[in-house]
Amino acid sequence: MDIAAYMAEVGQEARRAAAEVARSTTATRNRALLATAEALESARDALAQANEADLARGKDNGLEAAMLDRLELTPARIDAMIEGLKQVATLPDPIGEITGMTFRPSGIQVGKMRVPLGVIGIIYESRPNVTVEAASLCLKSGNATILRGGSEAIESNQAIAACLARGLAEAGLPESAVQVIKTTDRAAVGKLITMPQFVDVIVPRGGKGLIERISKDARVPVIKHLDGVCHVYVDSHADPQKALDIALNSKTQRYGTCNTMETLLVDEEIAEDMLPLLAEAFRKKSVELRGCSRTQAILSDAVAATEMDWFEEYLAPVLAVRVVDGLDQAIEHINRYSSQHTDSIVTENYTRARRFLTEVDSASVMVNASTRFADGFEYGLGAEIGISTDKIHARGPVGLEGLTSQKYVVFGDGHVRT
Taking 80 as the threshold, does the pLDDT of residue 383 lie above it? Predict the structure, then answer.
């Protein structure tokens, strides 16, 4: 296959489709989503067969058990894909919303209209259900999308792509509004991220290595986050039970997510009382604690933390713990070592909570809540395409609104500038 020619054709088709999707009605896009759900339901056997082929090849190639688990399309996961499409169809459509209309002294009215980004390229690994999630959000927000899944899921993704094509066709939308790359050649990724004439934004979903490569080589804007080094700070004015519950949930509810706490900060005024309670709870969950010298003085079984531990995203039952002199040092630590993803304070002091919210420079900043809430569904977005720690355009969980932009609209009645 001539990869350059193939990707250029995909890009041209996506650009043409984007214009048609952008002018389609909400009802049309919802019909495409619901028709895709029906297509998935009727294609269960074909999806299972395609997935079995991917799993068999993965086992032959020595894929790890965790990767095989993410790759598998169980009946329950197919159910979840179908339900996800139905849920996205019920979400409010952001496209065409006009806000902030004001009369200017000249007599014109000025406001902003929400519009699609255009063509969104999404690069992801392993999980074939991402194909449906990404396509549904892009379509609902009036965008065309080019999807490049992992080579290990090629058969599953193509089977899902056939269902998406059926749904689009039934709604009268171009099948090229959602294109799943048909080749496993990595050169396709290189072309996708360097086609600004066809692609408006890239969203990488996967490991740090993938995201670093995309960020380094892309010639189009990238919505991404690299690490999830999330903190919980237990203030001297914290309620002890709240602190215990929030810290434990932030770390142990799931270990392998980007919104899992990786560093616990405890105010020195309460450290001698609070740390043993926290350590006992983490011990029961078999979490290894790596502490600063002051932490080790209180917890004899804590491993000595190194400078690198403060930067580490463990994604495992390991937690860095530091005793800090107070709110100022906690904020200083977070702003130095955080990946600007999600950070939380536990306190009953309103003034300290407000300072934390104002001065911590992260995409999500919380008061008396687990970092595990940093999620599009939990934030009421319905679903998310990913998390952004960038400061321009989208920040935090990226839902439908994050896949749109705004343009100024002006209403006049024969007005001319003097």
Answer: no
